[in-house]
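Pilot study result, target chain (216 residues):
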Amino acid sequence: MTTPPRIALIHALKHSIAPIEAAFAQAWPEARLMNLLDDSLSADLARDGKLNDAMTERFLALGDYAAATGANGILFTCSAFGPCIEAVAQAHAPMPVLKPNEAMIERAVTMGKRIGLLSTFPPTLVSMPPEFPASIQIVPKLAEGALAALDRGDRITHDRLIVDASRDLRNCDVIALAQFSIASTAPMVAEATGRPVVTTPDSAVDKLMKLLNVKP
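Predicted structure:
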């Protein structure tokens, strides 16, 4: 591929944009990025409490739009919508369509059998554990109040609540940060727990590069 691939980034939380752009800037600055944001997706999921056919149709429409712009790959950045993203991947095969967490899960399971899963968005702790192999023990942990703090623009409180919550995961082999929006807390979580920490943005960029045969 002579011109760098175009990667469509589809977000359900505005807080996901900066972390994934930072990961691309570090690992794959040549990629051409486009951002699609619909923050009503996360609001409607929080209201309804579960995924439904209407939500899947919305994801299919977003995938169709991204493909129509000439995207070479699609990365979804919100971790609570796994089945909807799988429907998009099926519709657009063989184009790489990644769930935000699949690359991180692949990395985490090589590091231990007991994985702490830390999130600030409750639906993620429902949808994401089944994506891990059955042989893995998942210890879910919600950092309560952290997302509301971030929505208020209070990143200091957001980060402190995540670090406080992470201390309950000190008996895990590895801690997985379940969302793009909390990836920046990885060094603080590692320091507070003494455990290795994996994040979604870095893992996802690495996997996309491999799928599109881009040399680091």
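One observation from the pilot: The mean pLDDT is 95. A full batch analysis is planned for the follow-on phase.
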